[in-house]
């Protein structure tokens, strides 16, 4: 049976999409320190809104010596599903944008990942919206939020519930930062950084394959 974090999860403020975050990630992680094992806390800290690979306990936590038995692996299933969904979403968007500009999408995509059909549908629907880039970005984050919501009912108080909470909190924090400045400029900057990061990653991938 998975460990439950009733006291911790019950003490966390409720998160609502499109509202300011009621707590910071720093404070959330600080609260987790008293309840969560250090190796699992490291996993929470490492979560990102722009993952580049599916979390793999054996690969990503080898240095932390996390046991690879089934009881530990089960703590990461929800995040494996979410990251797979997120990467599919980004890969689909990259393909749609590249097609519109007559470019090869491979340079903007993360390779060797499983496909999630619901993420493909979400990307296609939002890409085809008649809306400005900021509204589309909000729609993408709402799709992310809804996907996380869909898993939450089955993970009310376990470690995966904390992972879901952290991902939702990062979405709210992203928009809180953008509201402080020029949201359109921030969105363009974020998109450019994301594309450049993927290009660098794929260049490294090609170099390694040539060696």
In DSSP terms (H or I, runs of 4 or more residues), the helix count works out at 10
Coarse shape: globular
Largest sheet: none
Tally of DSSP β-strands = 0
How far apart the termini lie comes to 45 Å
- Supply the number of structural domains: 1
Helical residues, percent: 55-70%
Overall pLDDT confidence: 81
Salient structural properties:
mainly alpha; globular
Q: How would you explain this protein's 3D organization?
A:
By secondary structure, the chain is mostly helical. The chain has helices spanning 6-11, 25-32, 38-46, 57-60, 70-73, 77-100, 117-127, 133-152, 159-178, 183-210. It has one domain. The protein has 10 helices and no strands. The longest helix is centred in the last third of the chain and has 28 residues, at 183-210. It starts with 5 loop residues before the first helix and ends with a helix.
How is the topology of this model organized?
Elements: H1 6-11, H2 25-32, H3 38-46, H4 57-60, H5 70-73, H6 77-100, H7 117-127, H8 133-152, H9 159-178, H10 183-210
Helix pairs in contact: 6-7, 7-8, 8-9
Give a quick precis of the structure.
The protein has helices at residues 6-11, 25-32, 38-46, 57-60, 70-73, 77-100, 117-127, 133-152, 159-178, 183-210.
